[in-house]
Amino acid sequence: MHEVFIVAHRRLDDYDGRAAITTWLYHLSRGVVSNWRRGRRREAARLSLVEEPQNTAPNPEDATQREEAAAFVRNFIASLDRDKRLIFELSEIDGLAMSEVAEIAGIKLNTAYSRLRAARLEFQRAVARLQAKQARGSG
Fold first, then answer.
1. Which CATH number fits domain 59-139: 3.40.718.10, 3.30.300.30, 3.20.20.10, 1.10.10.10?
2. pLDDT band at 93 (very low <50, low <70, confident <90, very high)
């Protein structure tokens, strides 16, 4: 519901008065719910691709690696400028479609794609630096 009011506030200038405000809000609500459901389906589809772990006993080494990977991603996201961070989080972490990301950010679709491409490139470079550092440490 909170998201509906955020979208309504952002799109209030789009309301032209031809329909009742309740009708306009209803259509906004449908769109927000539809986007939310689509995101959940995408998330479920991504999760269905991951195999269930065979061993349920916790492995301390795996836990440490997950924590390090999570810290790396958090640090990377924190290093991005505000505009790229918003686009990267909405697209890559929240799994929203780029049209939704652009609407939330209040920017043109091509600008959103450009920022995502730049953030992904920065991520690839950060991963390459980390891998090179790890290779030097083990070799």
1. 1.10.10.10
2. confident
Q: How many CB atoms neighbour CB 18 within 10 A?
A: 7
What single-letter amino acid sits at 66? R
Give the tens place of pLDDT for each residue, 34-57.
988 998 988 888 888 877 767 667
For the four alpha carbons of 8, 9, 13 and 19, in that order, the dihedral sign comes to positive
Residue 100 neighbours by CB under 8 Å, 6+ apart:
35, 90
Question: pLDDT value at position 59?
Answer: 79
* Domain range list for the chain: 1-51, 59-139
Please give the structure tokens belonging to residue 100.
């939704």
